[in-house]
Amino acid sequence: MTDSLVMRSAREQLRGLEDREFSARELLDAHVEQMDRFNATLNAVVSQDLDRAVDAAAAVDSARAAGSPCGPLAGLPMSIKDTHATAGLRTTYGSKLFADNVPTADDEIVGRLRAAGVVIVGKTNVPEMAAGSHTYNPVFGTTVNPYDTSRSVGGSSGGGAAALAAGFQPLSDGSDMGGSLRNPASFCNVVGLRPTPGRVPDPSDGLPFFRLAVAGPMARTVGDVGLMLSAIAGQHSGDPTSLSEDPSHFADVGAVDLRGLRVAWAPTLGGRIAVEPEVLAVLEDAVAVFEAGGAQVDVACPDLDGADFVFRTLRAADFDLAWGDVLERQPHSFKAEIAWNVRQGAKLSGRQVTRAVAELARLHRAAEQFFDGYDVLLAPVVQVAPFDASIDWPHQVGDTAMATYLDWMAACYLITPLGVPAMSVPAGFTEQGLPVGLQMVTRARSESRLLGIAAAFEEATWHGRRTPPLLDVT
């Protein structure tokens, strides 16, 4: 009973709660039991707050019994990414600097999830300071992949993706600068959406007008991603770039008709990235699903000239703003890749930063023009299949050496400066049984269109229904 219950979609779990098939407390207990079985192996949930979770579930049950209004996610258990502050619950950012940090207030996304009725169970693991797409840190260690526990879950929202795949929770929150929602979703056979900047507000962001990092949802189905987006999106007076559109309709997006859809397929992003052949083989089959459904598919890529410069420059500037002073005082408190990235930011001139901002604006306009001709762009999410979890990052993709810890993530981070929504949807498996995601991208502020296209692909394939072999262990 436990396995079948926890692997239901968020919508199915909500339906069970509303129909009194089970209580919020019973749903919480089922997910905690699943964690007790598998979390010691995966290391996905790294802090727990079970006493308050029990109280929160009981409050949902009492409200429902009294006929009082409940939030749209009321009773769903969920652990929160360990870079999102949770009042009264340790938030470490995967860093020894914050190993004992207990915030007094929630981040905005956490507050919105609580208001929607989510029962917060704990925190999910991240790379140190969420830097890099491989989830390991000096506080909690490495999170491993439910589909092959010798492999990486990606990152930085890796703990959340693994928790979804293993049935610890039906929804996960995350953030994405260079692929941190999309990359782990691909590695763990779940769905991850990077929304348009401003769709999910962040009043704490110090650089809102040229934002690279955004918060967003992950789930096991496209429909559940839309459901969660409807609860966390929407305007906030403290975020000058937040979008005012009512987000409630994201919960009801259905699959579009693929016939006549104009599809651009960019397997190497116009020759800009190396991709492992085993990944491309899976993705070619996925693209064929669109052709079989009646879509017009062209090999085409948006203008990404300058995207690498923009991403690396503004990322480095952001890192220097966040941690530059701390690095000066405590130079040995960060892993080498973060220290390098911060120092890159400290070396930037004002001219370099303003050039990057100007190029960012040009890329936004170029993307808008590209999507006048295409409904969706398809591309790889990750250039490799899930790799050995014992290494720091892939130093080679095929015959191409990766010079820095960023290079192997370019399939995602080159899309980031376009300012558009992008998501990873389960696309199939390698011959070794490792998950591969397909990246789908649409024009800015068109999440509804993106969700509809992704739902059509999902309904034609349902790769996401293939659960990890780990769960078959009795």
From TrEMBL:
Transmembrane spans: none
Protein source organism: Mycolicibacterium hodleri
GO molecular function: catalytic activity
Protein name per UniProt: Amidase
Segments forming domain Amidase: 26-451
Listed Pfam families: Amidase
Entry-linked InterPro entries: Amidase (IPR000120), Amidase_CS (IPR020556), Amidase_dom (IPR023631), AS_sf (IPR036928)
NCBIfam families given in the database record: PRK07486.1 (NF005686)
Domain of life assignment: Bacteria
